[in-house]
Amino acid sequence: KTNHPNIRRIDVESAEEMYAAAIQEYPQTDIGILCAAVADFTLNIISDKKIKREGDAFTLQLKPKREVAKDIVDKLI
Question: CA-CA distances (angstroms) from residue 29 to 46, 73, 77?
């Protein structure tokens, strides 16, 4: 874990939490270090319960996730 007086660490548990924290913290940030995406896609529909097996195949529909780095850079322009 980071233990430096000039570095503030924000722990998150999901890509959505990371996005919200990055967008919220950006305005008062002097330096940002951005790296690879958590995930480029997420499930289109998320089920709260087990999906029962039907047939031999199952298709998952995905949608693109928001792009943290791109959205932060867009706010600079």
Answer: 34, 13, 16
